[in-house]
Amino acid sequence: MFQYHFSSYLVDQLLTFAGSRYQQSKKEVLIHQDQPLSKLVLVRSGTISFSYDVGNGRRLLLGQLDCNNTLIGEIEALNNNPCIYTVTCFSDVSYNLIELKHWRALLLDKPELSLYTAQTIAAKFQENQKINLDKLLLPLGYNIAKDCLLRAENNNPTLLRAYPTVNAEAERFATTERAYRRVVSELVEKGLVERANGGLKVVNLDKLSDYVESFSQI
To answer: Model confidence over 60-94: pLDDT tens digits?
Structure first.
């Protein structure tokens, strides 16, 4: 689930093996966590959300993704492991199913697609690893501020969209709603962000950037 929007060439290759086109309604689960994967899912259109549940009432939300020929399950297809995330439809979703044997045969037959897949998996793994390490080692204020900064700069095409509710955003940062509200209030008081209908909005980009950079000087 690392590479989000694939090249038109790869999509065209995959669609030669695709069967019927399916529809899934909003709020329905497309893939369950720990579900063995028998086919790749090529989401043609719609919005999906990724989540991870540890089974003790706590859940990590990764964000929303507006799909445009988005392939889900290529990591699992390569290592034969069950799906690590639950994928939920946040809108009506249209998708095709691709047999794993066809995906694997395509990679063997076309080395350029194998290299493309390896490069994108590696790049997304590094990106996710850095985000997760930052969440583990740096304060919540840094992580929320850095997230706002990345979205304001809008130079990361694979960045998952934030959620419209406070409780979902708290789960995205692996914290409680109370802690999330408290830290957001502190950022607002510092004049870095403000609350808006669509979530947090940057007030002063330079000041926010300086705030994020200050954590590397501690």
So the answer is: 999 999 998 888 988 888 888 899 999 999 999 99
Torsion of CA 113, 90, 22, 83, to 10 degrees: 50
Beta-carbon contacts of residue 79 (< 8 Å; ≥ 6 apart): none
The rounded Cα 39 to chain-centroid distance in angstroms is 20
Helices (H), 28-173: 74-79, 100-109, 111-137, 140-153, 166-172
> Helical H runs in 39-110?
74-79, 100-109
3-state SS class at 29: strand
Q: What are phi and psi of 138, to 5 degrees?
A: -115, 155
CB of 155 within 8 A of CB of 205? no
